[in-house]
């Protein structure tokens, strides 16, 4: 790092701006090491020799006998490592006894973090200086820092959704769902129900709704009672303000905090009020609040008991790299999921990929938004960052018509697409909003306002929340990227999404493990799991949940077991055999279907344990 600093100092001319003035970022050189009065610059660093004495206020920091006469050329800087403070002790480093060291907290050259078996540093380099730095013997790569795009989204401020909920309630039957059946179908240790929830929650806890089969969409959200408890959800985003009912800690039973602020590649661990109110630039930012709200909010969150950890960061890949390293140092492998709801398109960054791989190998799971540019995110040379990178669970978005069921299974027109997009989730959500509220940590009033908003920024944390549900429900299993991705793919609804951006985009929609579709008025026109387990009065129940009478022209084709006919809910026929009905259990499930459901859920505790 000293070599880099020396090159910057020697080649200051390369930092002169168009107006003829020296870049102000180099002002620290006047404080750290005084240079020649006329700022004479030497083009050849090896032949330059600066013999001015170090200023008295810096001399006091030199670790040497004060009687020793020291020249500038004999002095080396020990660059303060704010990201890994334990590395600042000289006991852990081999220092040359013939050289004198001063501690320096520099903005021109500073530590980022280790990546595998090498260390990443951030340096402020002109093009000329960069070429010189690349020639240093201990430099393996030198790349320009690139930035993510600041997310763009629209918000529709709401004071309440009460009228919508009352409308739904007025059309309900007193009892229309069977908790015992749901528990048996899902294998959950306990079932919780949030009645009259928002669509982004309801739609992930049932198979695809078809108004031809079930009269009214069920806006209940069904989820395991463990609800993500004990799982840490890390959000690399813009900031968080906990003064909202969404971020209830249930009297200390969970953690909701801003853990660190990272800007310019330098991390600051939060203290006191910053734990409850933070942003990367000290300005109010609402994006992180909404992301946290849908991931683990008490009202509109998927994993309502999961811990929330915000890492408020700037928008460079250096900031992201340091944020990942912070989580590696402070997080719990196999008990943590990470969400990154930001995007950008640049040339592939091998060092960022290496850091991602390091996190995955350590037992962390990373989700990322696909992006909102309606373009292919998966170009190998210019992949979307980071949804187009390896070892990421990349999430696209559905919903094109506000927060109602219309459009739930249609790809959002803004959502990026491509073969690297693993799964889709609801992109139109209701989330925490501080409009007309005091977001400051010391406010005595808890905010209860919400907003409609949309984007892949919100479908991604929904998937992170589902992962937290799975991990909490099966706490004895050590999930990793591979096993979590596999189970999410297996649980997903296949081929239900319309208008995906490309043919090679996988057609998968998130599901949390509950399948049966209920109608709140108990009015069903179909049969089977897509229609409240309703049974056909006559004829067969087809694969798609329609009752077909024996006199129908479709009976011969649709009512064969080989074609997906559901014998639990009607009369099916085997090829060249008479009609038969598979035995059912007390819940209206065939013994075969019940066993399949139990087998699927038991995989949480067995198949992936050894992965």
UniProtKB/TrEMBL annotation:
<dbReference type="InterPro" id="IPR000209">
    <property type="entry name" value="Peptidase_S8/S53_dom"/>
</dbReference>
<dbReference type="InterPro" id="IPR050131">
    <property type="entry name" value="Peptidase_S8_subtilisin-like"/>
</dbReference>
<protein>
    <submittedName>
        <fullName>Subtilisin-like protein</fullName>
    </submittedName>
</protein>
<feature type="domain" description="Peptidase S8/S53">
    <location>
        <begin position="228"/>
        <end position="498"/>
    </location>
</feature>
<comment type="similarity">
    <text>Belongs to the peptidase S8 family.</text>
</comment>
<keyword id="KW-0378">Hydrolase</keyword>
<dbReference type="InterPro" id="IPR015500">
    <property type="entry name" value="Peptidase_S8_subtilisin-rel"/>
</dbReference>
<feature type="active site" description="Charge relay system">
    <location>
        <position position="237"/>
    </location>
</feature>
<dbReference type="GO" id="GO:0005615">
    <property type="term" value="C:extracellular space"/>
</dbReference>
<dbReference type="GO" id="GO:0004252">
    <property type="term" value="F:serine-type endopeptidase activity"/>
</dbReference>
<dbReference type="InterPro" id="IPR036852">
    <property type="entry name" value="Peptidase_S8/S53_dom_sf"/>
</dbReference>
<keyword id="KW-0645">Protease</keyword>
<dbReference type="Pfam" id="PF00082">
    <property type="entry name" value="Peptidase_S8"/>
</dbReference>
<keyword id="KW-0720">Serine protease</keyword>
<feature type="active site" description="Charge relay system">
    <location>
        <position position="457"/>
    </location>
</feature>
<dbReference type="GO" id="GO:0006508">
    <property type="term" value="P:proteolysis"/>
</dbReference>
<feature type="active site" description="Charge relay system">
    <location>
        <position position="287"/>
    </location>
</feature>
